[in-house]
Design goal:
This protein has 161 residues and is an all-alpha fold. The protein contains two helices and no strands. Helix 1 packs antiparallel against helix 2. The chain is rod-shaped. The two termini are 15 Å apart.
Length: 161
Amino acid sequence: MDQIKAKLATLRIEADESSAKAEEYKAKVKTLETENMQKEQEITSLSHKNQVLEGEVEKLEALVKTYKDEASAGTAAGSQAESMQRKIQVLEEEAEESDRTIRELNEKLRQTDVKSGHYERKVQALEQSRDQWETKYEEMAKKYADTKKELEDFVKQISDI
């Protein structure tokens, strides 16, 4: 009788532990899914920014070319040419800065893609683990029900004696 009680207590503890782990894994999966969605939104945002910056770079390059053409044509007076040179220099610096920003954004996008893939694999692994724990929990619940039935049958037999 004491063995059965001990076995039941052990099964209850195992069932409670399995249930707690399953809940913990469900929470982890939700967290990872939320993080994954945020990363996807960040990727979309970065892609949009990248497109906008590329458009700006094209505009700036066109302006640089225009200013260079005007400066080389010599149509403006000496002071105007100096002013144009300064504008060209500023625009070239802005274009270089935009290029640098685009490279950084592309690198961040690549890193985000890598992280996203990593988190997707992690979510799949956690889902598999969760499924295993759910299966184990169901098995333990069945064992618990069988053991409980055996105990009831045993108690009935003893009471009949």
